[in-house]
């Protein structure tokens, strides 16, 4: 088996090592980013929901940057959220505009969940690697 081309940002290794996964893997011209949560460097959750979402986006930004990508390269987003019926609009309307910029936006799927290992929000993306062939 070929070694995975894993991408690790500076910091936050406690969470990745504790749960045995790579933050992102390059393959086929794309970057597949594992779900990013609003964790501090020690892996603990940020308690305030809006701040947890902002920290999840900051953590995602660090993973993208470590691979030479930005939010402009993101083509697909999956969000997992505890109780999205009462919380989604609050966080999506206040945090997302700071990151996605103008349309066209990436595709998105939001999934309501009951458990995220102590977190309330997780975001997973696929990004096109700069220099990869356009399709």
UniProtKB/TrEMBL annotation:
CDD domains: YjgH_like. GO terms for molecular function: deaminase activity. One of its GO terms (cellular component) is cytosol. It comes from the Bacteria. Pfam families: Ribonuc_L-PSP. This is RidA family protein.
